[in-house]
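Note to self: user wants both folds in one dump. Writing first protein now.
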Amino acid sequence: MRRSATRETATIRDAELVRRALAGSGEAYREIVRRFERPVMSLIVRMVRDPATAEDLAQETFVKAFRNLRRYDPRRKLASWLFKIAHNATLDHLRKKSLDTVPLEPADAAGEGSWEVLSAPAAWAPDRRAESAELLAGLDRALARMRPNYREILLLRFREGLAYRDLAEVMELPMGTVKIQLHRARKQLLHELEKLGLAPAGAEAAKQEPATSRRVATKESPE
């Protein structure tokens, strides 16, 4: 019976899951945590660079989310709503405390899956893809050197797959600013990868700022 309930819960849409949680279903609350705990934790840990602190912030994120669950708009993605809460909690923490950038253990980075898309999709040369463990560890080191907001926008866009609209909502920025920051974040990541000797093929072309971004920059502040 328990296994059947778990399988059935896993197929529930986000809005229905929230509705059941608000109706008092403990299983619905547990499913929300099960479904989104890992991506929320993964984002935060790479922002604060400390697993213990990230665990506290992830717990704070879900506590705040559950306290304000009635404010959730079912027309939005639940993941985006949770990322926004995590984003605000993490920024508050970073503002209160200046953190040293400490690279994660290589084993942790290697266990997270393929991150090549973060720098330039399909750009890694075929003979470099075999070095996946080294590339993943190097990518994590490159991300560690970046500004927190650049790290975050890359992770949300390429790791979590958020659309520009969702990025703008989570980061509370105009759409044009999001596109500019994303381009500049990719450009900085490629620069950091080059310094580590891990730049993918076509890196120079990827670093050129598109004309559309330059036009938007004249209308909106990029920072």
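First done. Writing the second protein, which came from a different request thread.
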Amino acid sequence: MILIRDLICGMFRNRLLERGFGRVMLCVALVSAILSGCASTGGLRNMATVSKYFDKNTDVVWNAVLQTAEGLPIKVKDKDKMVLETQWIKGWSKTRTTGLILEGQWQARYRLVVQVTGGQGKTYVSVYSLCEEKAPGGSRAYRWERTTSDGDTEQAFLTKLEGILNNP
């Protein structure tokens, strides 16, 4: 019984190899590895998004967004696309330091992106941020590294916007 199975498996294996099945499988595996490596961005795209619907028209909400962003350095202010994007806003990391002895704080920066979308009598506002940190010394002191947002900055912006819209 074992000899018959081995003989059949051997014939089947030889037939697949003759037809180039091994090469096809190798190509499929190689293409899969290449594409999965390209499609994977790791944690670079992690962003906290905070959003809310408002019972106001888009022009009123857009003006309130501009009021809320007053004092922030603006990079993009496109009323046609209803997108507002800030420049990088620098500060210090709340979570990372090099310790009490070295007393080095990591620098942090964020960029807010606000999208306003209207439809069916309501206006949808979405706020998210890109966050980066860099170490206080060493070779890492020259490179900004993408981090995930805790959502506090986005929520603070949306809360301020809500206050402006509720108090005309």
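Dump finished. Worth passing along: The chain has two domains: 2-39, 49-166.
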